[in-house]
Amino acid sequence: TASYRYVDWLLTVPLLLVEVIAVLALAKEVSRSLIMRLVPASAAMIALGYPGEVSNDQNTQVLYGVLSTIPFLYILYVLFVELGKSLDRQPEGVAATVGRLRLLLIATWGVYPMVIACF
């Protein structure tokens, strides 16, 4: 059911973001800053999506869909803009890995809201 899926996401998505930052081997201060912003944003994204998922009211679904998109856009901002600032000081391989990560994130997380909106 939706409840189990959202509880799973509430645990796994923040952990996934922590793992992503950890494997990049960024400076300790940069990693900490990114994690302290990404984890709460991912939890907010999921928590705000749940009321829309379980509601039968279309207005509620749209409202919480929009509200959950705000933290999602913030996550993209942090991963594209803020993380991008620290890539100048990283080896070239890290920048390439982050580029692939960004594309994968948009391709997977970005498609989900569109699929949900169609059904």
UniProtKB/TrEMBL annotation:
Pfam family, one: Bac_rhodopsin
Main location: membrane
GO terms of biological process kind: phototransduction
InterPro entries for this protein: Arc/bac/fun_rhodopsins, Rhodopsin_retinal_BS
KW Transmembrane (keyword) present: yes
Location within or outside the cell: Membrane
Annotated transmembrane regions: 6-27, 62-80
Membrane topology: Multi-pass membrane protein
Keyword Transmembrane set for record: yes
GO cellular component, one term: membrane
GO MF assignments: monoatomic ion channel activity; photoreceptor activity
Keywords of the record: Chromophore, Membrane, Photoreceptor protein, Receptor, Retinal protein, Sensory transduction, Transmembrane, Transmembrane helix
Domain of life: Bacteria
Entry-linked SUPFAM superfamilies: Family A G protein-coupled receptor-like
Family: Belongs to the archaeal/bacterial/fungal opsin family.
The protein, known as: Rhodopsin
